[in-house]
Amino acid sequence: MINLQNISKIYQPNIKALDRVSLSIKPGEFVSLVGQSGTGKTTLVRCLIGEEQPTEGKITIGDWDITRLSKNQIPFLRRQVAVIFQDFKLLPKKTLFENVAFALEVAGKSGDKIRSIVPQVMKIVGLGSKMKRYPHEVSGGEQQRAAIARALVYQPKVLLADEPTGNLDSINAQEIVDLLKKINEFGTTVVLVTHNREIVNRLKRRVVTLHDGRVISDQAVGKYSL
Amino acid sequence: MFISLARAAKFSLQDIIRNVWLSLVTIIILVLAFFSVNLLLSVQVISKAAIDTVRDKIDVSLYLKNDSAESDILALRAQISAMDNVREVIYVSKQQALEDFQTKHQNNPDILEALRELDTNPLSPSLIVRPSDINKYETLITNLNRLSSPIIESRNFDDQSLMLQKINSITDRVSQAGFVVSLLFIFITLLVLYNTIRVAIYTHRTEIGIERLVGASDWFIRAPFIISSLIYTLIALFLVRQFFTFS
Asked: Does domain B66-150 have CATH number 3.40.50.620?
């Protein structure tokens, strides 16, 4: 599914964020990518969504080489590889419904389709009754659910979650992780980037550990070992 | 394509309404910019009209002998009309001159009384020549000076050229000042507009980033801005037009 071959990313003048990272993720896997702050987790995510280009190496998603994407191709990548962030990145002047609908609108989906898909997805993430609220009117957990709903409407093959629980209390964080597990059960590959030890240990799934830009461990059923 | 355009229009209207203060400020800035440019144009148009009116008033009078025959006068008039740079030649008959004189001095009983004392009309007929191009005034004067006709009593070409110089210098100064002030205003307007656009983009920078992350193409991100700016401009133009129509 996702293949990273010897990915290196060097920021000028000489900061090595990623150092020959090779990683293979199968379809339908749930992988936790762990490591302390500044170990290159976010750089890896940015490379996977086309925000950054690796200095060396090759990234493929399915048969698609995304290492050197042109600007025009990025919108199409976003519909295959959805991403959620620690700070939710919702549009503040749009309601939760409009935020989710926006993802479909940019893809040129019809109004009828949007009106039928969005409420369904909102119900799946548990926001069926809060669709008309603005982001500042709901809790952090709910904002992250809306962000997840927005990521799901494309029915992406991969969902990247970059520290999705970083701004949440432990109860909300656990709920978000449960939601990610549910999405994974529907068949979406999930890559969870986190440094939350408790969450990783409770998941009992594959754990890839990064340190100083390198993969230092990759366990099928792993624990947070740093 | 149509659906994207309709959506861009929807987003633009939503944005204008939900960022109502920013929208208002933008419209006010545009109104002020258009207003200042319009005001300047109006001043220039008015001053040009004023100067043209004064230029229209410039003429040369040929006073004719009191006993000139009507046919001679009309022949002279035809001769002058055929000259270069003559817009029109007006014939003021003795009777007309008397009437004009009376109207001019209607509030001065002494003069009217004196006129009544005289039995005959003391005024002489005249031809008023208006040049078509004020800048070739000198040539006209030379031509008129060359004109020889027994019925010409006197030629009144004196202080017109001085007046003309004054008018020309005022016109030049007005148009020079107008040009400089116009440049200044255009520069200020452009700066203000540039800044307004920067502020709008700065306010929306997070949103633009998020939209890109969600997979919006550049066109999809830009279109609502373009539509919003069109709407702002139309509203501002409408307001300025209303102001100038009513004032």
From this structure: no
